[in-house]
Amino acid sequence: MSHAQWALVTGASSGIGEALAACFARDGINLVLVARSEDKLQALAQRWRGERGIEVKTLCIDLALTDGADQVFAALDGLVPSYLVNNAGIGLYGKVQDTDLDAEQRLLDLNIRSLTRLCKLCLPAMLAQGYGHILNLASTAAFQPGPYMAVYYASKAYVLSLSEAMAEDLKGTGVMVTALCPGPTRSGFQAGAGMEGTGLFKRLAMAEVGQVAEVGYRAMMNGRRLAIPGFGNKLLVQSLRLLPRRWVTAMVAWLSRPAKSR
């Protein structure tokens, strides 16, 4: 097993995941890239091998599958990542009474179950070497209820809570956990979630994936527990803590309604 540093990045073929992987490549850290798109993974691997001179392994695995996280861990074959980035995730738009139960179960399997399993599977080796960084992708959605995306918002609240609790549990072990909580970002997320026409992405400022990734990467490397990119998002999170929850819920519902409903 090589003593070189490795980063395991899920959801690495596009968006914030690709941008985070680029940060590691820039700093000469070898990569294990996980996503469902084999062609995109191979293109990124070829580029970074050539431009950065690093080793890149690709794993075309669907982490929403029951054994997806276990497949990833088995494929490491003894390689111990110094960095674990749990970026893979999906959204689902619609009122809770209208959304498909199987689609929501897939969301929970990817956003919660696989993330938790990868943390638990990689943690023993990190603890044994006395060093490791885990970056979990949460969201500003984690700080509020989310009408029209109830299950997604709840899943991100789980990720934030888990990450903060893990960081405290692991204090003094050399393993640090960071939760990255971006707001609306220019990526393929909104199209995948079916929410392109909502006010959430039309009325609020949108960040670029590179900016979000840099904030998360620096926070992880510095051992910070929480990273919220952008002054506006930081202000929003602080404001949410002061307002009555019912007001916050109504505000999110108004922003999230289809454009023709407002």
From TrEMBL:
SUPFAM superfamilies: NAD(P)-binding Rossmann-fold domains. One of its GO terms (molecular function) is oxidoreductase activity. Keywords: Oxidoreductase. It comes from the Bacteria. InterPro entries: NAD(P)-bd_dom_sf, SDR_fam. The keyword Isomerase does not apply. Pfam families: adh_short. Belongs to the short-chain dehydrogenases/reductases (SDR) family. This is Short-chain dehydrogenase/reductase SDR. It comes from Gallaecimonas xiamenensis 3-C-1.
